[in-house]
Amino acid sequence: MGVRFRRHTDCPGEEVKTISGLARRDTQWQGRLADGRPLQSKGTLGLEDAHASMSGSSDSDDAALVVTVDEHRLEADWLDEAPNTRAAIGEALPLSGDAARWGEELYVSVPVDVSAENARTDVPVGALAYWPAGNALCLFWGPTPASDADEPRAASPVNVFGRVRDISALEELEDGEAKLGLERR
Question: For domain 65-184, which CATH number applies: 3.40.50.2300, 2.40.100.20, 3.40.50.300, 3.40.50.720?
Fold first, then answer.
């Protein structure tokens, strides 16, 4: 089941970020996370800032997200190829848990339920993705057992919503479980 949104017009004068990447006054989007918690996308963006916010780009070099893997803190940026997934993950932040390792991928169950959205199995190094089949947050930094070469490949299609800037710290990661977290910067 995917994230469902409904439009409200009962908040006059408030600027909000919509799922489509546009900012408008008097608009708020709502839905539900997998655990039943409400999902709301709202904020104080100007129209000129909407695209930059939704695409993860801005005038500064500050990363929008921080990924933690055990003691490592990695900077990451939002991508805009899966906007519903991005909104659901963003609303559920911060996320963390004991992650399982599958090759050079970590994945952890999260309280988010989003349908496949531009889902794919071949992902870039550093991809942050949501796995609809397992309701899991995934971090890819190298080959997995499903890979044909050195590039990461998911076991089944994932929704890519972000990307870690520098994965070099993960090359030292020992086999086995690790604590994986995702939060806003």
Answer: 2.40.100.20
What's residue 61's pLDDT? 62
Question: If phi over 0 gives left and psi between -120 and 50 gives alpha, with beta otherwise, what is residue 20?
Answer: alpha
Domain boundaries of the chain, sorted by first residue: 6-55, 65-184
pTM: 0.69
82-112 per-position pLDDT tens digit:
999 999 999 999 999 999 999 999 999 999 9
What are the residues whose beta carbons fall under 8 Å from the beta carbon of 72, sequence distance 6 or more?
169, 170, 173
Q: Which of 29-43, 48-62, 110-124 has the highest mean pLDDT?
A: 110-124
Phi-psi region of 131 (alpha: psi -120 to 50; beta: other; left: phi over 0): beta
Q: Measured on CA atoms in the order 14, 15, 17, 18, is the torsion positive or negative?
A: positive
What single-letter amino acid sits at 134? G
